[in-house]
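Students often ask why inverse folding is considered easier than folding. One informal answer: many sequences map to the same fold, so there is more than one right answer. In these notes we will look at a single instance of the problem. The structure comes first.
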């Protein structure tokens, strides 16, 4: 039986077939597959082929309220319409589950999902759900969002994110990484760049690269609370939440959630946002600050950085002072005393300036320096140079 010619489009000089892939959930996944003109000629007449829509290119235009498959008349929208439509009803299971995930930040959590639904082009922070415990609902939260955003969300593994080929996820609005462990500096840099990128290069095997608008938001899930990703001390793009164990296990919760999604979308359409956009990622740093984020940053400090802090605090306690004035050369001496073999000026200066945001004195001034003698006693001596000031309050704030 001949298929409907409407299942084909021509984009530029290439033909594509719109494929509906059946899933085990009984849903379908819509994909595009290149189709040869010679094959079309075997199945259809030239007159029928001439009826295939001729488009100029692809675009990504996310919109859940006024969705258009063809944008500006000649561009095929690779973003997919939502299958579920808002409908008034009860969504108490979903609201209780969202409250479990976001705890005291429940209203912010609702805002996060509401912005995704109503304003999908807005940037949002990198949401990280962590817990060393099992049965917390982290993965269930990903499946919940997948039920809403369907083909516009994908769940990746660590290697997918590291790969240069991104054609499978570049048009998605939600990119979730389950069992996240991105310990390389390059991993975190890529994630940071993607989280704020307005455009990104589409790359597929055997195809030329081309630039597309990028609206992806990232959600990370990990059983490693301490160091699942390499994160800078000054980083502001992460919203890290430690998820508690579910109080009551419900094996049918996803079925209940699925049934309530139309009512939940209606609820989001009617709900008034509790926040206004204040930063490029909607929320302020203070709004999404959590103990889990502080713990992650603290554990991401290198051994050298931790040792400098400990020694500065020890000098303050020993000398009964609130501030230590120190030049990089002083710190190098401290580190050598502590057993570091080859501490360098550049490493020390990077910690002081980049990690801690400290600025040295503009001019060379006299100050009291400190070192440790062979017995471990703190010894003070006059020094002169462009020193940095480390205060007890600064260390306390850094740790908090």
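Output (designed amino acids):
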């Amino acid at each position: 039986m001949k298929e409907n010619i409407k299942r084909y489009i021509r984009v530029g000089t290439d033909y594509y077939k719109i494929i509906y892939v059946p899933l085990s959930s009984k849903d379908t996944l819509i994909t595009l597959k290149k189709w040869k003109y010679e094959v079309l000629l075997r199945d259809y007449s030239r007159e029928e082929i001439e009826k295939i829509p001729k488009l100029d290119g692809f675009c990504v235009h996310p919109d859940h309220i006024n969705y258009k498959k063809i944008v500006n008349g000649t561009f095929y929208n690779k973003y997919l319409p939502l299958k579920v439509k808002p409908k008034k009803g009860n969504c108490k299971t979903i609201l209780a589950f969202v409250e479990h995930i976001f705890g005291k930040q429940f209203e912010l959590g609702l805002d996060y999902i509401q912005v995704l639904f109503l304003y999908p082009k807005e940037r949002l922070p990198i949401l990280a759900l962590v817990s060393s415990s099992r049965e917390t609902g982290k993965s269930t939260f990903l499946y919940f969002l997948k039920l809403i955003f369907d083909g516009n969300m994908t769940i990746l593994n660590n290697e997918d994110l590291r790969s240069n080929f991104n054609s499978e996820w570049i048009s998605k609005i939600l990119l979730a990484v389950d069992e996240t462990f991105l310990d390389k500096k390059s991993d975190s840099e890529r994630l940071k760049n993607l989280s704020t990128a307005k455009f990104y290069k589409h790359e597929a095997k055997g195809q030329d690269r081309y630039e597309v608008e990028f609206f992806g938001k990232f959600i990370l899930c990990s059983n490693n609370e301490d160091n699942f990703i390499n994160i800078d001390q000054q980083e502001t793009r992460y919203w890290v939440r430690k998820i508690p164990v579910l109080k009551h296990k419900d094996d049918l919760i996803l079925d209940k959630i699925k049934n309530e999604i139309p009512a939940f979308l209606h609820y989001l359409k009617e709900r008034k946002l509790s926040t206004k956009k204040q930063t490029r990622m909607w929320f302020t740093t203070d709004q999404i600050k959590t103990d889990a984020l502080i713990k992650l940053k603290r554990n991401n400090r290198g051994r050298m950085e931790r040792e400098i802090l400990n020694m500065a605090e020890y000098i303050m306690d020993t000398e009964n002072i609130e501030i230590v004035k120190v030049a990089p050369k002083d710190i190098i001496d401290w580190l050598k005393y502590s057993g570091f073999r080859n501490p360098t000026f550049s490493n020390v200066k990077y910690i002081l300036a980049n990690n801690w945001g400290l600025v040295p004195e503009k001019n060379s001034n006299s100050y009291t320096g400190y070192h440790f003698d062979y017995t471990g006693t703190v010894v003070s001596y006059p020094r002169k140079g462009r020193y940095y000031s480390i205060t007890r309050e600064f260390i306390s704030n850094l740790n908090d």
